[in-house]
Give the backbone structure.
Amino acid sequence: MIELYHGGPTGHSASMLIALAEKGLDFTSRPIDLAGGENHSEAFLELNPEGQVPVLLADGSALTGTFHILLYLDEAFPAPPLGGENPQARYAVHKWGKYVETHIAPNLAIARWALMGGAADARPDGLPPARAALWRQALEGFSEDQVSSARRALEKAAARVSQDAAATGWLAGAAYSVADIAAYPHLAQFAALGIALPAEAQDWLARVAERPAVRHAAGDMPLVATMGPELGRWG
Ligand SMILES: N[C@@H](CCC(=O)N[C@@H](CS)C(=O)NCC(=O)O)C(=O)O
């Protein structure tokens, strides 16, 4: 049985909820109260020392790192296939997974925190040093330079989504894939932050939003987020 430790249907947690719904998988839901700092509790840090959701328990292992988990699910449960239909598409899927993790998610976290604030009950002391330092900085407030550079990175990301989606309607190759699932919950927050999406990116967002699995995953919640900063730590 799969267990998913997750926040609300937004950001990385939303990618997980969407993928599980696309694959038609039953799972036990373990909601974590990010705003209340539950992800920094001793019990949760035993599951993921980084203090972040999502964590997927499968076959007795605690899996972390959203894009890696998406690839794991696609391999463990091949129907419907979501990993890219040929080597070129799979290459693009991997490029997008890395880009979401190293550019989009961390910059979105800073821009979002600056505009909306985040969890006041964060307890960074038990986190690894780099994550604790990032949390302390967030609690003190990011500088104007950091925020404007984060926003510029997100504007570039919007242009990149637009460019790649213009070709086939999807981000990586001719089919919907885990690239779309990894990117969508982050791009869905751009409008709330006042970051304009070119028309092709808006069309792509609407195309993904219409999927039954995405509607199911979103439930009644808006796809905006309030949780704290995160550090891209791919590779
Ligand atoms: N690199 C992680 C990032 C996960 C992440 O940023 N999760 C956010 C919620 S969307 C979180 O747990 N934030 C709380 C924190 O960073 O302490 C992944 O790919 O899963």
About this structure: Residues 7, 11-13, 34, 39, 51-54, 65-66, 101, 105, 227-228, 230, 233 surround glutathione (CB under 6 Å). The CA atoms of residues 100 and 183 lie 6 Å apart. The domain at 2-76 is CATH 3.40.30.10 (Glutaredoxin).
